[in-house]
Amino acid sequence: PLSHPLVGASAIARATPERRRATHARRAASTTDAEGRARHLAMAADGPDPDAAAACDAASENAERRGAPEVAADLAELATGLTDPTDLSRIAARRCRAAALRVAIGDPVRARQHLEAALVAATTPEARVPVLLVGVVGMLRGTEFNKRNGNKLMRLRVAAQAVTIVLFAIYMLF
After folding, report:
1. What would you measure as the largest C-alpha separation in the chain, in angstroms?
2. Residue 61 is inside which H or E element, if any?
3. 8-state DSSP, 47
4. pTM (two decimals)
5. 79, 97, 144, 173: which has the highest count of C-beta atoms within 10 A?
6. Which tens digit of pLDDT belongs to each residue from 54-93?
7. Between 115 and 71, where is the model more confident?
8. Is residue 130 scored above 60 in pLDDT?
9. Measuring CA to CA, which residue among 138, 126, 130 is closest to residue 164?
């Protein structure tokens, strides 16, 4: 730790990105606080990093359990940014969680951004259902997301219901 915030800010401003990432990696290895470790792992990453994303997910869940939804939302967003861009189902799930946390803390603008990205990434009905549920909660809260995506969410809800009925019928027949 640096003795004065200005000294720290000056050192950070002069450091190369590689050096900053290496410093964060060392801090992640030496800290015992799960949230601090997750943040340092995220800052040490140079692109998608499944381990850092998983640490951010776990720390986000811990923060939510202890009653810190804003911290949980920030960590969920970090996890989203660390996800492999080709893993669409995981992106959809993480974006949906980040959106739900943003809805819970009254941040409809960022919730909408996450929901829109989740809808793009959600390629199966199973992946769309959580997005739909978060969108419904957002609609109940009267967000702008409702005005722009209400019809699309309703179509997704109907599709999800149809899939549920088909799966139930298959289950009952076999």
Report:
1. 70
2. helix 50-65
3. S
4. 0.72
5. 79
6. 999 999 999 999 999 999 999 999 999 999 999 998 999 9
7. 71
8. yes
9. 126
User: Cα 92 vs. chain centroid, distance in angstroms?
Assistant: 9
DSSP string, 134-147: HHHHHHHTT-HHHH
Q: In 3-state terms, what secondary structure has residue 45? A: coil
Higher pLDDT, 102 or 137: 102
Q: Is the pLDDT of residue 145 over 80?
A: no
Both tokens of 53, joined, read 């994303």
Mutual orientation of helices 125-140 and 88-104 as an angle, nearest 10°? 10
* Rounded Cα distance, 28 and 12, in Å: 17
**DSSP-based three-state secondary structure for 15:** coil
Determine the Cα–Cα distance for residues 144 and 151; give it in Å rounded to an integer. Answer: 13
What length is written for the chain?
Answer: 174
Ranges of beta strands (E only) in 20-135 are none
